Every structure is written in structure tokens, then in C-alpha cells.
Amino acid sequence: MKWTFFHRMSSPKWFYDFSGKCLPWVGVLALGCIATGLTWGLLFTPPDYLQGNSYRIIFLHVPSASLAMTVYVGLAITAGIGYIWKIKLADMAVSCLAPIGASFCALALITGSIWGKPTWGTWWVWDARLTSMLILLFLYLGLVALREAFDSKETASRACAILAMVGLVNIPIIKFSVDWWNTLHQGATIKMTERPSMALEMLVPLLVSIAGFYLFCLFVFLLRLRAEIISREQRTSWVRSLLGAKS
Amino acid sequence: MYFDSIYELLTMGGHGPYVWAAYGIGLSVLVWNLFTPIFQGRKTADAIRRNARREQLRHEQLQREGR
Amino acid sequence: MSQLPFLSVSGLTCERDERILFESLDFTLSVGEILQVSGPNGAGKTTLMRVIAGLSLDFRGQINWCNQPVEDDRPGFQSSLLYMGHQPGVKSTMTPEENLQWAMGLHRSLTREEIWGALEKVKLRGYEDVPCYQLSAGQNRRVALARLFLAKQKLWILDEPFTAIDKLGVAELEQTLVDHASSGGLVMMTTHHEMNVDYSGFRQLVLGEKQ
Amino acid sequence: MSQLPFLSVSGLTCERDERILFESLDFTLSVGEILQVSGPNGAGKTTLMRVIAGLSLDFRGQINWCNQPVEDDRPGFQSSLLYMGHQPGVKSTMTPEENLQWAMGLHRSLTREEIWGALEKVKLRGYEDVPCYQLSAGQNRRVALARLFLAKQKLWILDEPFTAIDKLGVAELEQTLVDHASSGGLVMMTTHHEMNVDYSGFRQLVLGEKQ
Amino acid sequence: MSVSQGVMVVLRRDLHLAFRNRGDLINPLIFFMLVATLFPLGVGPDPDTLLVMGGGVIWVSALLANLLAMDSLFRSDFEDGSLEQLMLGPQPLWMIAMAKVISHWLVTGLPLTLLSPVLAIMFGLPVTALPAIVATLLLGTPLLSLIGAIGAGLTVGLRKGGILLSLLTLPLYIPVLIIGTGGIDAAVSEMVWSGHLMWQGVLLVLGVTFAPLAISASLRVSISG
Amino acid sequence: MSVSQGVMVVLRRDLHLAFRNRGDLINPLIFFMLVATLFPLGVGPDPDTLLVMGGGVIWVSALLANLLAMDSLFRSDFEDGSLEQLMLGPQPLWMIAMAKVISHWLVTGLPLTLLSPVLAIMFGLPVTALPAIVATLLLGTPLLSLIGAIGAGLTVGLRKGGILLSLLTLPLYIPVLIIGTGGIDAAVSEMVWSGHLMWQGVLLVLGVTFAPLAISASLRVSISG
Ligand code: HEM
Ligand SMILES: Nc1ncnc2c1ncn2[C@@H]1O[C@H](COP(=O)(O)OP(=O)(O)OP(=O)(O)O)[C@@H](O)[C@H]1O
Ligand SMILES: Nc1ncnc2c1ncn2[C@@H]1O[C@H](COP(=O)(O)OP(=O)(O)OP(=O)(O)O)[C@@H](O)[C@H]1O
Ligand SMILES: [Mg+2]
Ligand SMILES: [Mg+2]
After folding, report:
1. pTM of the prediction?
2. B62 interface with C at CB cutoff 8 Å
């Protein structure tokens, strides 16, 4: 019984219909949360007593950093599932997730280094966490570039799935080795602050904003996946009738 | 609102440029994410239309040859 | 497997780039037969060959070798298959002798005499130890074709084997194919040449009819 | 230069790797003529074509264009030469339209209609904007051959232009060559096909006789 | 049809191809970033060491990125027969070679130069040194492209291009490297660096004068060989 | 004919080809030397800096040399159709892939490891650190070859291999680099470095187990795509 559900879910047509129903809800919720979280954080919270107003970047930085990491893990697991059970939809999902993850990873890096300037006095340090984030960006870019380089989308997504799985094995190794690298050599001059026992008035907008980012990610992921499904399945009768009905 | 004036909101006690730059970039990333799938969908529609045209041309050519 | 080997294809459909190349293709190739796949440029001949050889997985339908789906026993199928595509797999820095030695070496060990004999048959005696980049287009093709004289495989799939070969060479090659088929082999091939064989097992499969 | 253009070759000798391919070759090619260079594989046909086109400088002898050694006026010679070798110079990431646009763009500007017309002639209408890696071997060759319909050059040197082209295509191409020659052009070509032209200016030059 | 028009056709085509597979445009940049990142990972995160190394690492990475993209400058054209067509066209070969070098520089050298300040900041180089970094790279990378193209022309006909190309060209890159990093070092220690820039200018003029001839000669050798 | 015999055929052929154009054998070595020498030129001759940099630079150069030779691992076989032949042969594809990786390592990784002491001495590293350098490279370079081959398999069918390959594989090389240079640094500061070696061993075992499958999967994708 479980398996039939699994199979139904992996059918592009079922997924297209289903995601069509969820899409508006997710979208409205995502934009609502982001708008609330960001305006709240930007305009209504008091400044941090140590970092002043620059801490307002946290409402962008933490959600995007956390998303960047979650998306990669999700992507790699999807790739594994797709490869082992030969699910086309999973391959498509991998190639759709890569650019989204890359954009959030870049955002985390950019906001982080903008934040670093007023607080640490430098845009960049070779700290373990920062460096592993940079490497994660490269992994993402590799996936995006590989996907772009292939001509056929089928081949591209199969290739991306292999690379993502290799990455899955490597992510913990990279993480571990980078942490180790930095503690072995002399410690970095500046350590990133541990999560401060945050005041509630800052924590709530942060949580709202995190939720908003995750929902937004889901929203754009669905948008991308739907576009991908249409372009891959354009020959099938259901897409034809769908497009025919539209135009 | 926490800030007393627009000026204060913009400068944020010296941290304005950093915060606003970060938010600007953040916003543009969100917008980019929102728009690429839409453009992609449009491109797919174009491609489908082109394919239809190609099929038609091929058909016409064959008919011409058939005669 | 006491039964004679044969290849049967049923319901083979392949679409490329939103265009159906062939649909529900059914045919059988038995021992002693030569099947020439023909059709205009872009009909899908190469695609068909690659699908059957197992190089392309982008298709629907069923391919059986001795009544068994090829997926079930790829190694077994591959060990009785000789495939030669548009690119013949000749290393240009190696000599013809080395090329043959290696290409057939995957399947079985060869003596030097066998190799020289095969090169003799494709008129490359005297070129055994010239690196292949110094050979002409047709001579390079001949190096690849020399494999046919060494092959123990039953099923030959040849994609335009006559490219760049001169007239005499083509005639000899046609004879080689007939010989192989009549001694219990199966040949599937494409070419744009007019095949000039007088052999009862010779058949044609025309693709792209509808066009 | 009011005189009709012609190519004359005298005393052309070429040896490759201690072996004489051709020696003291003399021939003239005048307006209206089609010269098929033939011979077995490895006879030196490609070598001869490359020597005349100026791509290979490993020869002795004299090549004249309109009674003037080609070395004296390479740009002039090249601007009236269309050469097509074994590799046809089709970029696989570009579409047929772009390929033609660029290949002829070195010589003159083209309108879109001209290009589409040429592609129509080689049966590639509908494929104008498909990247060439998605085309079959023969279709790729056809993209290169479409140049013939746009060329204003007088002298065509074509090395096995019929490779991978289907039968109907070969017949049409032969007609194109005849048309070019009879309207004041010069054609020099190789092929292993039996040429099926009924044209007074058609001649053959056989290489590798001694072999 | 004028000669320059033909050159424009080649230039446009190459840029078009680069933009077509966008990878061509971004990959050298990412490679540049990646190689530069390897060094802190290999050497350790100590800011003082990184400051000393910074200029050198940026230049070496730029040089390697340039070199790696160089290999494909003529190769694909050679393999599909386009190079023969270019050589037999009505334009002089050296002009076509120049068009290709320019497009190569626009696709690798220029973006790389524009990105270099980011790397400089990551290595903790002072902001005052940024103009020197950009300026030396701006004058130096075209020279790298010119020199590399000679090697690429010589090796294009060979079956093992990549690594032989580096052997031929890396030694020739060394003067460019020394002058470039010298300029950056001078700027970091707040001395005048216009002298280095002048020398780079001189080398560039020399390169622009002689390299096209060398490139076209080497292409001729490769094709007729 | 046994399976292992087929693998031996492939291995022998690849080594044979490498010795045939001897360049394949020496070029990665010279590239390794050249890149390593670029650094003192770029950074300046100060012995203290060089000592700090030494291990890192040697490893980064080894890594780049490995990468550059990687691009041609499957490419020429792909282009002339040999790869299809190998794939259709009676041996499982992963065995053939392993044979090719081994021959690649024998031709680049091993000679490079043997040459590394020379470079180490040139950078002024203490003689006591030499065993660590050789040992880490000896365990690390096979791993580089294994990881790189996955990328090479994925990119072999693409028109722009070289630089995309580096983009895919360099991030994956990072752990190997970090552990390797960590070992050397430990040895230079006269601490125990057997822990690093152990980790490298663990990674190598992991690599030998999983990489062949990934390589053959990626080759299959490239050929059938
Ligand atoms: C380019 C520079 C930076 C990068 C790449 C970076 C990366 C990250 C990452 C990966 C996380 C973890 C998110 C999670 O676990 O969900 C994080 C969290 C965080 N970052 Fe940054 N960061 C950077 C700069 C900064 C700066 C300058 C500050 C402020 C001084 C900062 C403050 C924080 C805080 C407060 C958190 C949340 C605490 C936690 O989850 O551990 N970051 N950052
Ligand atoms: N680069 C080279 N170095 C040395 N010898 C060569 C080289 N290229 C060709 N040859 C020799 O020159 C001879 C003629 O080659 P060429 O390519 O001209 O033959 P061809 O007549 O075009 O043959 P085909 O019909 O096979 O195309 C061949 O025997 C070949 O061995
Ligand atoms: N990689 C690809 N992606 C999309 N379409 C392709 C691809 N390769 C081939 N095609 C299409 O498939 C069709 C058949 O190609 P194929 O190579 O099988 O033709 P063919 O019959 O062998 O032709 P030829 O006689 O020219 O060799 C062509 O029209 C081509 O456009
Ligand atoms: Mg074909
Ligand atoms: Mg020839």
C-alpha cells in the first residue's frame, strides 16, 4: 500500500496536478512569512547591544545559510533515491534544486561577509565554517555547470544525480576535514559567535523569517519542477491536452 | 517602528550601508529565484511552438516532393 | 543453449527530440541472415543500431537474444556481439598491429600470425608498424575492419562499414559478410551503397518510410 | 584578368614517408570541367587535394592559377577557392543556420533568405535552429554541403563530399556539380562512388596506377 | 568585403559560441576562485602568511586559469575542420588569430581581472593595493593570452595537447608573473608601482607586435604537418 | 579468457600508449615542477615564507598536475570510439575503469611522488619531513586519481571538458589536500603524523570501494547520452 503511494507520487502527471493544488497556498504563506519576518526584523526590533543595527542582517543570513545546507542534503538524498529506484521525477528534482541551493549559498556568503565588515572588521577570514560554506558553493556551482553543459536534459539529470551522490559521501568528509584543518593550525583569530541566548523579540522574527525562507524555497522548487516536467513530457498526451486547453 | 526618522532608518547608526546592501542583495536573490522558472516555462512554450512549426515545414516539403 | 542464436526485436519505439524515429518496430534476425537497414539521412539507422547494441538506453520496447531479454544477460549478449560504429575505435598513435592486438585482446588472445593474416586480408601488409595517423582515411577504416577476420562473435552490427573504402574493397567486404552469414553468423548493417550481393539470406529494412 | 580562369599543375611530386605517392603529375583544369581524382585507398588523393589547396607544403612542382604561380598571389587564389576536406568544418554547438552564416560570412554577407534557401536545397528545412550535434552524420555533412549553393568561388576542391549522404542526395549533388561547371566553374573532387554524370566536361585522373 | 569585416565575423562567432555554452564564460572564473582557495587550505589560515602570499597566489591562479582555457582556443576548430576553412579564407591568418586571442581574453582574462579584488579581500590584502592588482592583471592577462596562443597553435595538431601546452608556455609566462607580482608587492608595501606597470606596457606592445605573426606561423605548421 | 586477463590487456595498452608518446610520462612531472616553481617567483624568495608554504605548495601542485592529466583519461578513447568498444567488451565496465585509473596513477601519481623530495628540499623543508611528504603523497595521489576519474567520466562526452572537470573535482579533492598537508605540517613541527596517514588510508579504502561504481555509472551516462 505504501508502495503504490510512492509510485503514484513519482508519476509526473500526478505530481503536476498535486503540486498545482498546493502551489498557491505555499506561495502566499511564503511571501507572507518573508514579508512579516523581514520587515519586523528590519524596522521593529531594537538593535543588538553589542553589534548595533548591523545584526539585522541575521534575518537574511541565518535562513539562507541553513537553507543552503538543508537543500544540499535533500538534493543528494533525492538523487540517491532516484538513481536506485530509477525515478525520473527525482532526477528532475535534483537538477531543479541545484540552482536554488546555489543562490541561497551565495546569499549566505554575501550577507555573512557584509556582516563581517562592521563586526569583525574584515570581509573574510579562513574560518572552518566560512570555508566549508565556500566549498559548498563550489559543489553547487559544479552541479549547475554540469547540468548546463549537457545538451539533453535526461542525460544532464542522470549525470547530476551521480555527482550529487558522490557529493553526499563527500560532504561529511569535507566538513570534518575543514573543521579539523582549522583547529590543527593556529586557531582562527575570530570565532563566529555561538548562538547567543537571544531575546525573544529578536528570536520570533528570526523564526518567522526562517519559516518564510523554507516555504519560499519549496515554492520556487515546485515552480521549477513544474516547468521541467512540462518541458520533458511535452510529447505525452496529458501535457498536450494541458497546453492545448491553455492556448 | 523602532526608528524615529527616515534618516535614522537609512543610516542605522553607521551600519546602514551594510544592512541595506545585504537586504538589497537578498531581495534580488529572491526575485531571481522567482523569475527564472517563469522564464523557463515561457522558453519551453516557445520550443514547443517551434517544434510544431518544424513538423509542419517537414510535412509541407514532403507533400511538395510527393507531387 | 543448443538452440541457434537469433535476435528478435518487438515493439521498438524511439523518439528523439520530440520526433518519433521509428515506432513499434518488429523484426527477427536469424542465423544466416544479413539485414541491411536503409533509409534517408536522419531516418534513425544509427540510433537503431546503438539501441540494439545497448549503447543507447533511450527507447521503449523489447530486444531479445535467443528468446531472452538482453537486459537479463548483458555479458552473455556482449560476448557474442561485434559492434562497429561511425567512429571505428582505431587509436591513431598505435600501429595497425597493436590496434588489432588490443581490440580483439579483450575477447581472446591472438597470435601474431593471425593478426598479420587479417591485415593481409584488408591489404595493409607493409603497414603493420606504421602509426595509424600516417594512414589515409580508408586505410584507417580498414584497420578497424580487419577485426571482422578475427572475430569469433556471431552477431555483427556494422554502421556504414564501407565509408571511405574503395570499390574493390567494398566488393571484398560484401563477400566477407556473406561468408560470415553463411557460416552461421548474423549481420545487421547500414550503408548508403547499393549492396551488390547475391545471397538468399539478404534482407532490407527500410526506415523512415512514412516520411 | 579577362582570361578565363584555369588551374594548371606541372611536375607535381609528393612523397610521404619514403614512398612516392605521385610523380611528375601534369594536368590542367579549365572552366567547365569536373575532374574526379580516383584511386585505391592510400593512393594519395587527399594529399593531392591538400597540396593544391595550399594546406600542405610538402611537395615539389608547380601549381599555377591563371598562369601565375599560386604562391605569388595566395589571397587572390584563396578568394576563388572553396575547399572541403574530410572534416567538413561544422561546429556542433551551432545550428545549421549559424554554421552557414559564419562559414560564408568570411567571404561575403548573406541574407537570411539566402541561407534558408540553401538549407532547403539540402533538405534541412525545419532543422535551421537545431544544434548540429543533434543531427545525424549525413545531415551534418549536408550542412557543410549547403555552402555549395551559396558559394561565389570558381574553383571547388571537394574531398569525398558524398560520404554519409543517401542515394537521392548523391544524385542531387552530382547535378549541382554539373550545374556549377557548366555555368563557368571548375570542380576537382574525389569519391569512391561510381559517378553517374552525363556531362562532356567530366574527366578522371587515376592515381596509384603503379600499385 | 573588407578584411576587418571578416575579422569581426570571427570575433563575433567566438563570443557567440562562448555565450552559447555559458559554461565557457563562468568556468574559468570559478577555476580561478577554486585554485586560489586551495592555497589557504594547503598552507593554513594564518592571516599574516596569507597576506604575504596573496598577490602571488592571485597571479598564479590567474595564470593557470588562463592556461587551462587556452587549450581549447584552437582545438575544437582544428578538430572539426574549421581551422582549415579559416586558413583558406580571404583574411590573413594573423588577423584571424588576433580575433581569436581577443575573444579568449574577453572571455577569461577580463572577467578574471574584474573578480580579482574579491580574492584580494579574501586574502586580506589592503584596499590600497586593489588598484595595483586590477591594473597589473589588466595589462598582464592580454599578454598571457598572446603568449599562450603561440603554444596553443603549436600543440593543436598533437594528440596530447593540454599538458605539453603548459610546458611550452609556462616558462614564457614567468616574466609576466614576476613583473605583475612585483607591482602588487610594491603597492602592498606602499611604494610606487607605476614602474612595473610601464614594463608591463612595454611587454604588451612587444607582444601585440610580434605574437600574431608567431601564432599564424605556428598554426600553419600545425595544419600542414 | 578470464576477466582479469581482459583487465590486464587494458592496463598494458594504456601503459604502452603512455610510454609510446613519452611526453605523457614526463609532462605531468614537469608541470608539477613548473607550478611549484611559480610560487617562489610569485611570492618572493624569503626562506621562512617558503618553509611555511612548502608542504601546501607541493600538494597543490601535485593536485593540479593530477587534474590536468586527468582530462585525457577517457577523452581520446571516447573520441575515437574505443570507449564504446570497451563498454561492449566482455569485462565489466568498472574493472576496465579501474585498469585505466591504475595506469593513470602509475603514469602521474607515482612519478610525482618520487620526485617530491627534490621539491621539498628546494623549499627548504627539513629532511626529517621527507618521509611524511612521500608517504602522504603515496596514499593521497591514488585517491586523487579515483575521484578525478569520476569527474572525467562525467565530462568526457562534453565539448568543453578541461575546465568543467576541474570545477567538479577540485572541491572533492579538498579533504585529501587538507589531510595530506596536515601530515606534512605535523612532520615539519616534529609531531606524530601517523594519524593523518591512517585517515588517508581510510579514505583510500572508501575510494577504492565506491569510486569504480561511480566511474562506470558516469561513463555509461556519457556514452548513452
Ligand atoms: C561569509 C561569512 C559567513 C558565512 C559563510 C557564515 C555561515 C554561516 C552558517 C553556515 C551558519 C549556520 C546556519 C545554521 O546552522 O542553520 C551561520 C549561522 C550564523 N551566523 Fe554566520 N556566516 C558568516 C558570517 C557571519 C557573521 C559576520 C556573523 C556575525 C557576527 C554571523 C553570525 C551568525 C549567527 C548569529 C548564526 C546563527 C547561530 C548558529 O546557528 O550557530 N555569521 N553562518
Ligand atoms: N601524416 C602523414 N605522414 C606520413 N604519411 C602519410 C601521412 N598522411 C598520409 N600518409 C600516407 O600517404 C598515403 C596517401 O594518403 P591519402 O590520405 O592521400 O590517401 P587517399 O588517396 O586520400 O586515400 P583514401 O581513399 O583512403 O582517403 C597513405 O598511404 C598514407 O600512408
Ligand atoms: N543526440 C541527439 N539528440 C537529439 N536528436 C538526435 C540526436 N542524435 C540524433 N538525433 C536525431 O535523430 C535522427 C536520426 O539520427 P541517426 O543518426 O540515427 O540517423 P541515421 O539514419 O543514422 O542518418 P545518417 O544516414 O545520416 O547516418 C536525426 O534526425 C537526428 O536529428
Ligand atoms: Mg548514421
Ligand atoms: Mg582521402
Report:
1. 0.88
2. yes
